[in-house]
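Below is how a single chain appears once it has passed through the pipeline. First comes the sequence as given, then the structure the pipeline wrote out for it. We keep one example in the README because the format questions we get most often are answered faster by looking than by reading.
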Amino acid sequence: MNHDELNQYLRQYTPKERECLESHFPEAVYRQELKRFHKLDSETYLFESTAFMKPGDKIILHRQDRFNTVYPHKHDYIELCYVWSGKCNQTIEGKEIVTRQGDVCIFDTQAVHSIE
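Resulting structure:
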């Protein structure tokens, strides 16, 4: 896949993004998704690798859906986040930051973060 093909792929709407854009209550679309994760306290979820990875997988690529808030959460795995275009408002361990095109964040296990 070349740069142009990747750019086109990443800019296409996913089914979840379409559902969110067409919904009168987009927040409800993503709240439904949270039901598959363990809630640690009133604000924080645990995203476990088994929700994303198949047995034997060592690494996966996952495209984050747009148009939604990712609630405070932590993982049992390391996450590398790359901003392909635009910007991303994040809160990492209570500190608000803005990441922009080309920025990379690496989240260690147990680092609580969220995305606006």
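The helical segments are 3-11, 15-22, 26-34.

See the next section for the split statistics.
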